[in-house]
Automatic annotation (TrEMBL):
PANTHER family: NITRILASE-RELATED, OMEGA-AMIDASE NIT2. Residues 5-249 form the CN hydrolase domain. It comes from Fusibacter tunisiensis. The lineage of its organism: Bacteria, Bacillati, Bacillota, Clostridia, Eubacteriales. Keywords: Hydrolase. The keyword Zinc does not apply. Belongs to the carbon-nitrogen hydrolase superfamily. NIT1/NIT2 family. Transmembrane segments: none annotated. The keyword Ligase does not apply. Pfam families: CN_hydrolase (PF00795). This is Amidohydrolase.
Length: 272
């Protein structure tokens, strides 16, 4: 297993048409692969404005247009591609789904967002994802040449048990395609990423769309990589851009050896 790799986050604007968003994503995958990225992450709902009434119009079945383009991009650029998320249609249901591809373009995993963003904050963000979407059922951990990677989507990060579960199953990196908003982003985004990293002594990564004040739901941006010590080792602001960071799994193990939190866990004393 390779102990070090370069991971890139693409913080992109979501365009009006699905095709334009997918083109933008694919172009950026090529850009970051030229910079040496081996694992590339896209944002939540990167091919569709994050609005419940639009999910159905933009939705695709597994293997559809966006899936194909992501698979080709992964293969052409020889990268693992954590394909953000898109609205997925299966029969009469819609899901918020992340497809994950290996450098041969094979789909090696798929995560359906488990926790629905149903919030109503006074003088702040209102959103009811469950008006349009169904919830996923299972945690997602993919096998790569860099070890196991846990993938979950945005609001899933607020449930520490899910991250702990993925780490307990061997995930050495947690990746969250996400789209926090202008209410919860400034309040909780960095705090949550750093908390999951410190709780689990794991690289924790959040990749968001760029901020766009013309959209109904405004993404906070600030895509970020946090190391297992809880330090932010890379962060974008609100604009479009990308970030390439080094992931060092040996350093992660050193932290776990020196401060053996995961070994000290006494689950039997406080299982929920
Ligand atoms: N967009 C999400 O799913 C999560 C989010 O915005 C939050 O605050 O949590």
């Amino acid at each position: 297993m390779h102990k070090e790799f370069r991971l890139a986050l693409i913080q992109m604007k979501v365009m009006e048409t699905k095709e334009a968003s997918v083109d933008r994503a694919v172009l950026n995958v090529a850009r970051v692969s030229e910079k040496g990225a081996e694992v590339v992450v896209l944002p939540e709902m990167f091919n569709c404005p994050y609005e419940t009434h639009l999910f159905s119009d933009y939705a695709e079945e597994e293997g559809g247009y966006t899936w194909q383009k992501l698979s080709e991009a992964a293969e052409r650029n020889k990268v693992y591609l954590i394909g953000g998320s898109i609205p997925e249609r299966e029969e009469d249901r819609l899901y918020n789904t992340s497809y994950i591809f290996d450098p041969k373009g094979k789909c090696i995993g798929k995560h359906r967002k488990i926790h629905m963003l149903d919030i109503d904050i006074v003088n702040g963000q209102y959103f009811r994802e469950s008006d349009a979407l169904s919830a996923g059922e299972t945690p997602t951990i993919v096998e790569t040449e860099f070890g196991k990677i846990g993938v979950a989507i945005c609001y899933d990060i607020r449930f520490p048990e899910l991250s702990r579960y993925m780490v307990s199953k061997g995930a050495g990196v947690l990746i969250f395609p996400a789209a926090f908003n202008m209410t919860t982003g400034p309040a909780h985004w960095e705090l949550l990423l750093r908390s999951r990293a410190v709780d689990n002594q794991v690289y924790t990564v959040g990749c968001a769309p760029a901020r766009d004040y013309d959209l109904g739901y405004i993404s906070y941006g600030h895509s970020m990589v946090v190391n297992p010590w809880g330090d932010v080792i890379g962060e974008l602001n609100e604009d479009e851009g990308y970030l390439v960071g080094q992931i060092d799994l040996e350093a992660e193990q050193t932290i776990r050896d020196q401060l053996p939190l995961l070994k000290h866990l006494k689950k039997e004393k406080y299982t929920l």
